[in-house]
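Per-residue structure
===
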Amino acid sequence: MAIASGTSIGPYKIEHLIGAGGMGEVYSAHDSRLKRDVAIKFLPSRFAQDVQRLGRFEQEARAVAALNHANILVVHDSGTHEGMPYVVCELVDGKTLREVLSEGALPQRRIIEIGKQIAQGLGAAHTRGIIHRDLKPDNIMLTRQGGVKILDFGLAKLMQTSATDGSVATIASPLSEAGQVFGTVGYMAPEQVRGEKVDHRADLFALGVILYEAAAGAAPFNRASAVETMNAILKDDPPELSRADRKISPGLERIIFHCLEKNPEKRFQSASDVEFALDGLSDTSAVAAHLPRSRRSWRLAAALSGMVVLSAVGFFAGRRMVNGSPPDVHRLTYQRGIINNARISRDGKYVVYSARWNGEKSRLYSLQEPFLDSRPFELPEACVLSLSNSGQMALLIRPNMGPHQQCKGTLAQVAFSGGAPREIAEDVTEADWSPDGKELAIVHSGGGRDRIEYPIGNVLYETGGYISDLRVSPNGEMVGFLDHPQFPDDRGSVAVLDRKGQRRVLADGWMTEEGLAWAPDGRSLWFGATQSGSRRALYRAWLSGKLQVVARYPGSIRVQGCSQEGRLLFTIDNQFNGIRFQVPSGPDRFLGWLDWSMPHDLSPDGQNLLFDEEGDGGGPLYSTFVRKTDGSPPVRLGEGTAQQLSPGGQFALALVPGSPDRIALYPVGAGMQREIRSDPIEAIGSASFTPDGKQLVLSGSAHGQGEKLWVLPVDGGTAKPIGPEGVSMSMGNNAVVSPDGKSVLATSDHGLCLVPISGGEIRAIPHTDAQTRPLRWDQNGKSFLSYQRGNLPQQIFRTDVATGAQVLWKTVDLPDHTGLNGVAMLRVTPDGRYLAFMDSRTYSDLFYIDLN
């Protein structure tokens, strides 16, 4: 019986019917108590007296309410109205996958993204002992923000391991005994069709059918009748996707066919395996190119795919290297968002991590062996740095998030059991306890320099670049760290220091390096790095000088810690940087190109965008592009990181990484490119033209000194310093020279300041701080646009140069904050009509493996 619009059910006011199916009717409603829109699902009245159907409906409510995952529909409440049971769920704005597929097959990139998110949701459910058993495009919702939600666990079956033979059995009253068939024809696994007991691998078969349908535009086993379809599931091989005239890679085809194995023992054995395989397609392309594609060989190809996945998650370390048996990889987190830091206790039984899940603020969480549930700490926003043997945590409180998940804040100490943090030192980025828990090694950051102190106050090393991932050795006599020559680029080397400050480089020349941990014996270090692109692999560097690449994963590895028994903790990050372009009226335009697009300048008329690619797609030295903002394909100008269009727009300024870094001028149209000498500068962070186009203002360092400002003729020559160390242009904010060309808006630890180009007194801008970033001068030269780094929604202010007084100019925000690193690299035209900015997102997962 339909429920009338306006009917009140507790705090919920019914609005209208959304849809109806065999397991219920769904209405949109408004929750007057929490002021939110929700969906309410009722069991149809004609089935309310059906004991089995009612049991399955109540089972759905219990099963889904027990889950909390970004890719599974959230259940808020349940109850009964006039004899009809109901559940209250989140209201999802989007379309079902069935609606999307009605318009045709999908491109491979979209298939992979949808498949990964479905696998993540299934993995979370399967870990809780819940299987879906009715997975199909109708039960997959695609949100407008690009997310995926699994709906309708109405046929979910609670599982447990049998005490006798390890098989999966039900623990609820037997709603579906062997011999009964539940599910949707066409998506059921062979064991479902035969009425046998099923486990989580039936969901993986259904996922394979969904991915096949998304790739080919039609399900693999559909026939004229249900009986013929079930017979095809039991006996027929799916048609090759290559015959469907679709641009589907052999790697994706192998993964799909591996899901579709008739025998569940030959399928992927977990949803995590499917996710890893989908995420690692680019890593297996070389193998895929040589695999056979005939009908008789697709089973071999699927088996080889499993071998590739196994090798992708294998660590061949310690005794494992000798006997060739890779250890198991254990996944610890299933939410969707960013993990900033994670640490493991020395006995390997506790994990503490700080993360921003599902678009919420950063929180601190703990996991205790057997690592089933994350529990939040009742602490203010904090970032974990180290766990001591004596049960103390070293934290950063009031942290400011910087690039590459590195935080800066006040170092504090707090007991693992709880209590108020005790503040120790300010302006700290890294800290680690000595093995006895009595001393701390820290990185103190200020004045344009990073300093390693061990113990606190005893400076062992300082640099004009920056230091990350400081770790004390197991014997307490050394510290290992990642040394980066130029902030905030994470290029650099792996180094160690002894107590006397003697520094030794173990491995150099990394394009990106993040995460470090000592091996338990203190003779080697684990770290994540790559010499090309942005996808970090797992490496091991010995103090003796030996270097080994251990494993390459789908995604980028950040090593987080290693226990005394050899339990290695690490995160796998997948980051994507896109570009959004706002016009005075109408929706945003997405102008991202490859995997790591970063906007750097807009032409005054808003018609041209200068950007670069700094990920795998950009190549080992990155790539500079120019693109029409109408969405036309971009033009690659050359290597390097883009900086600025010249006055008049004829050239693009770029910095090419090297030793030293090089300055390039690329013609936007016809013409010859050239390089500008910049002696004595070695590392350059940012560069900007003066308004007349005759000089460059650079932010860089020379002879190992700290970063400072320099001025250089465009024709080349010797650069002249114009400011002290610690006063520089922040990366990504290079339009900072005043309209009259006489001064530069620069950043320092204390806030913005005005630096005269021709020399003279530096003047601080009142009411600004170290997080204030200049955006663009107003043409009158008396005010400028600025914003506070890291805040969302991102507010842009017009700031008076003389007084520092601020007036809100514009607010920039995005509807979905999940995984969002922030709105950064803002670029605005002089008239303020057009705005471009970077939409940067990272999705992290936490894992561990036992090396011994």
Remarks:
- Confidence is low (pLDDT under 50) at residues 155-181, 282-324.
- The CA atoms of residues 81 and 643 lie 62 Å apart.
- The first helix runs from residue 51 to 65.
